[in-house]
Write a structure and sequence with these properties.
By secondary structure, the protein is of the alpha/beta class. Helix content is 34%, strand content 23%. The protein is built from 10 helices and 16 strands. The strands form 4 sheets. A 6-stranded mixed sheet has the order 1-2-6-3-7-15. A 4-stranded antiparallel sheet has the order 10-11-9-12, covered by helices on one side. Strands 4-5-16 form a 3-stranded antiparallel sheet. Helix 4 crosses helix 10. The two termini are 16 Å apart.
């Protein structure tokens, strides 16, 4: 057995031996309540990661995304990027994990930020989405470096902000600054919780828009003297129900989107606001009698790679035009909030091939190739960074993300870390 084969053979033992360390690292990360919004504890978790990775001879940068959405003196958007150079020239493999987590919500039976270990599972908000994946990537990189101290190329590990709210203060900012330029990074693995036997090639597209219908305020006892903006919006909703939703249900994709229900075009009514604002929590009186002169609705449209983005916009514009032709004094505005095109990495790309082979070695099964129903930070690496060799792969069960009693299995993290370490060996030492 030569030195390289010997190093590969060590991976399972080295990572198994780090089980307690992996558990402790994941618990530490969960116990930092990096809630977004508003963006709590970002600097705390970045400094924690920086200290650990500096001790392993990574060059570490703390980068604040000044001026991005949500960035403020109280809630600065901090990111950490750590790079370990090898002994010789070669490719760079980058593990990117977001550090933010969504609100806890109701229904927990565990402390959302306790990081409790029970029956081989670590519980907490962000356990699977995606602090378990971040911890697994760190353990994998450290095991690889210990096995191959003279590796060629470079390894990068990043913890980035705001993925849960679009990633503009995290990966998008770093991509704009050149951190994902293909001249410095060649392969990216994002340890999102897509299940340990899956390779996620990309995601559907998304188009968010705000529609506002306008009316005329009047006394609620004499609504005929006003014009109800909510009724106008109701006509829009009715046209969505009878026309647009059935049409979307007929649009199916060849993308391997999971779950099955997402293999078509979908649209969610994200929010609906009409008339007077909700009163303050301590106000117990009645609303005033007014005809609402404004109603706003935000739509979240997810579309497939077979669709043209202009057609996605046009479908909603056609609905509004139809309602306008049917209703007197129908007045509206539509504002695009954000848009991301679908992306899907080719199965023949190097990172897909390496991770696939590693899954087969570790799990003794062929991987499933999937596409995410929602977007994640691959969109910025592709669109801004122009880096195509990017996938999502990590531990955790996708359906647990954003749920109460979210958890990540320790065995799943161990297996995923082995897959990541083997993929490093294949991409850097092949």
């Amino acid at each position: 057995m030569d030195a390289m084969d010997s190093g590969i053979a060590k991976f399972p033992d080295l990572i198994d031996a780090r089980r307690d360390e992996l558990i402790a690292l994941t618990q530490d990360l969960i116990r930092m309540p990096t809630l977004n919004p508003p963006g709590e504890a970002y600097l705390e978790i970045c400094e924690y990661l920086a200290k650990r990775l500096k001790a392993r001879k990574f060059h570490v940068e703390l980068i604040r995304a000044h001026g991005t959405p949500g960035d403020s003196a109280r809630y600065p958007r901090w990111n950490v990027v750590a790079r370990r150079e090898g002994k010789g020239p070669g490719a760079c493999v980058h593990f990117n994990s977001h550090i933010d987590v969504v609100e806890t919500g109701h229904g927990w039976t565990m402390d959302p930020f306790g990081g409790e270990l029970k029956d081989g599972k670590i519980y907490g908000r962000g356990a699977c989405d995606m602090k378990g994946g971040l911890a697994a990537s760190i353990i994998a990189a450290e095991a690889f470096i210990d096995s191959f101290p003279d590796f060629n190329g470079a390894i990068e590990i990043s913890g980035t902000a705001d993925e849960e709210t679009g990633g503009y203060g995290g990966v998008a900012y770093l991509a704009e600054k050149g951190y994902f330029n293909p001249s410095r990074v060649q392969h990216v693995i994002i340890p999102e919780p897509l299940n340990k036997d899956r390779v996620c090639l990309g995601h559907r597209g998304v188009w968010w828009a705000e529609i506002e219908t306008r009316g005329h305020i009047a006394h609620g006892s004499m609504p005929f003297l006003g014009d109800c903006a909510v009724r106008h919006m109701g006509a829009v909703l009715q046209e969505f129900e009878t026309g647009l939703y059935p049409a979307l249900a007929l649009k199916h994709t060849a993308m391997p989107v999971v779950p099955e229900g997402a293999r078509q075009s979908t649209m969610n009514i994200n929010s609906f606001h009409g008339g007077q604002a909700e009163p303050e929590a301590d106000f117990t009186g009645f609303p005033s009698a007014c005809v609402p002169d404004s109603c706003r609705m935000i739509i979240d449209r997810r579309y497939i790679i077979e669709e043209d983005p202009d057609d996605v916009r046009r479908e909603v514009a056609d609905v509004l035009a139809k309602v306008s032709a049917q209703r007197n004094d129908f007045s509206y505005d539509i504002r695009e909030m954000w848009h991301v095109t679908p992306t899907m990495t080719d199965k023949s790309s190097p990172v897909v091939q390496s991770v696939s082979k590693s899954i087969e070695k570790v799990l003794n099964k062929s991987p499933e190739y999937v596409v995410s129903p929602g977007t994640y930070d691959q969109k910025h690496i592709d669109r801004i960074g122009r880096l195509k060799d990017c996938i999502a792969y990590g531990p955790g069960i996708l359906d647990l993300a954003h749920q109460p009693d979210e958890y990540v299995g320790v065995d799943d993290m161990i297996d995923s870390a082995k897959v990541m370490a083997l993929s490093l060996q294949d991409l850097l030492n092949a």
